[in-house]
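Reminder to self: tokens first, then the designed residues, so the page reads top to bottom the way the pipeline ran.
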């Protein structure tokens, strides 16, 4: 949806869940000397200002990243520190910037976003760091690029979920991407809402790929009327040890 802008939600607890998982997986994959591909379908602008008007309006960052103690030695902690060193103490890295900061010169980054303003900001921040940035529909973009070269790598799908039909269309594409790129690690983030529209999607994916890792956390609404009750991640071909890593991340968020 072109109306969605992540700046209002950057740094919330769902972001911490998703971004810490992403950083852990990227750190794991880069331990081997072989090159890898990183693809992201709904990249957003990549860099956010936690002092900005958007963050102040929702209070989600204040209830999220601002109150947590992220271990500095964790890959997520390292990415946060590097983003702040480069862009200022209130800088918050989105997933594409986390990837750019943790990957190596031998790796490739391909990022898509369909929102013109978000794409322009993403292009300005990420192309100097070696990323390829595209103004395209994210799911079609991923289908056209998979399997990538190199074939080893990671794909993140993180849509806005503003359209109910996404809960059927996105998992279909997720599984199609797995069929095209069966050696890739594929991650799909979803919100946990009061009416739980994610349940049928999770059942469909895990029925098709039983080894899918499901990681979910719950947290109270950040403000009255806020519909999000938690955050979920589906990971196909999770690296060894990821299940334990996700328990550690859930512990930070639980406090």
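Designed residues (255 positions):
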């Amino acid at each position: 949806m072109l109306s969605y802008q992540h700046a209002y939600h950057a740094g919330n607890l769902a972001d911490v869940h998703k971004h810490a998982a992403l950083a852990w997986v990227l750190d794991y994959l880069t331990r081997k000397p072989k090159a890898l591909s990183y693809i992201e379908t709904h990249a957003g602008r990549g860099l956010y200002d936690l002092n900005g008007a958007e963050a102040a309006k929702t209070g989600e960052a204040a209830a999220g990243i601002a109150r947590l103690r992220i271990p500095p030695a964790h890959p997520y902690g390292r990415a946060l520190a590097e983003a702040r060193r480069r862009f200022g103490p209130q800088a918050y890295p989105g997933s594409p910037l986390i990837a750019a900061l943790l990957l190596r010169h031998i790796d490739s980054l391909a990022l898509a976003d369909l929102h013109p303003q978000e794409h322009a900001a993403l292009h300005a921040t990420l192309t100097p760091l070696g990323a390829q940035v595209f103004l395209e529909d994210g799911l079609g973009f991923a289908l056209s690029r998979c399997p990538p070269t190199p074939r080893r790598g990671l794909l993140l799908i993180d849509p806005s979920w503003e359209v109910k039909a996404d809960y059927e269309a996105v998992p279909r594409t997720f599984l199609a991407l797995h069929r095209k790129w069966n050696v890739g690690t594929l991650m799909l983030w979803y919100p946990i809402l009061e009416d739980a529209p994610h349940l049928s999607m999770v059942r469909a994916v895990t029925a098709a790929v039983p080894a899918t890792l499901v990681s979910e956390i719950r947290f109270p609404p950040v403000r009255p009327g806020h519909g999000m009750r938690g955050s979920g991640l589906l990971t196909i071909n999770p690296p060894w040890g990821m299940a334990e890593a996700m328990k550690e991340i859930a512990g930070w968020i639980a406090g």
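The mean pLDDT is 93.
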